[in-house]
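User: Reviewer 2 asked us to show a designed sequence for the structure in our supplementary figure. I'm pasting the structure tokens here. Could you produce the per-position amino acids so we can include them in the response letter?
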């Protein structure tokens, strides 16, 4: 497993050349000589669409988008099976984000990689994910395929997030949901549903612990009303 960090500038040693930072990762894949290290670096840098000469600069001498590409190249050097992507586009200009998403999708296909992506940008998640897990105050509240979660969100928190994001695609089912109030850390210590104070559908039973329960095959929700009373909270019935 390798990791791509949110802020590429903080992910490189500012005093070292990029080549020097990449070199250590070539050793993880077994490079033994300087020639083998340099060959692996050239291959990795070309695979992310950059010129190999760029690695002789320091991190502050390349743009944020280029540095994130170099960070991705570095993460690929040990030939991982899994890349953990921690908000890989959030520190970049909007104009660059799409390029990085496309690069990651392309690399995933070429290298048969699995990704575990953490992101707040719902458009990036939609573009990249096969399965989606939505978290609220440290708990998964909804888990499903990308299309189950985006087109047929069941948990009030997921529904509120998607409604606030105003995505054009895909079309959503169910009534819009407006969450009230602010996130409270205190709610994370309660045994019952952590959204109770903000949820327009909260009733007394919501104070009880809520397990993740399956609504349709592979689609899980931590909300008893979404499972037992979907129509009452503005959802189409479960299949
Ligand atoms: S369990 Fe109750 S408070 Fe929690 S999301 Fe469902 S309806 Fe809202």
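Assistant: Here is a per-position design you can include in the supplement:
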């Amino acid at each position: 497993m390798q990791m791509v960090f949110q802020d590429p500038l903080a992910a490189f040693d500012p005093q070292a050349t990029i080549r020097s930072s990449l070199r250590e990762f070539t050793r993880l894949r077994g490079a033994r000589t300087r020639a083998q290290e340099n060959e692996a670096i050239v291959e990795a840098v070309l695979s992310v669409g950059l010129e190999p000469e760029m690695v002789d600069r320091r991190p502050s001498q390349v743009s944020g988008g280029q540095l994130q590409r170099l960070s991705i190249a570095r993460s690929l050097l040990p030939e991982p099976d899994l890349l953990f992507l921690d908000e890989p586009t959030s520190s970049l200009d909007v104009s660059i984000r799409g390029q990085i998403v496309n690069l990651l999708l392309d690399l995933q296909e070429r290298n048969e990689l699995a990704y575990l992506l953490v992101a707040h940008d719902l458009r990036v998640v939609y573009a990249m994910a096969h399965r989606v897990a939505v978290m609220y105050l440290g708990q998964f509240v909804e888990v499903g395929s990308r299309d189950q979660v985006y087109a047929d969100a069941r948990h009030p928190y997921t529904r509120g997030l998607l409604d606030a994001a105003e995505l054009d695609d895909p079309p959503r089912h169910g009534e819009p949901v407006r969450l009230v109030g602010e996130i409270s850390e205190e709610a994370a210590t309660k045994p019952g549903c952590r959204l109770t104070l903000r949820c327009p559908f909260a009733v007394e039973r919501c104070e009880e612990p809520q397990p993740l329960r399956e609504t349709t095959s592979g689609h899980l929700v931590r909300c008893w009303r979404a499972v037992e009373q979907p129509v009452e909270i503005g959802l189409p019935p479960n299949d």
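For the response letter, you might also mention the following. Strands lie at 2-4, 82-86, 114-118, 131-136, 139-145, 213-216, 219-221. The chain has two domains: 2-128, 132-233.
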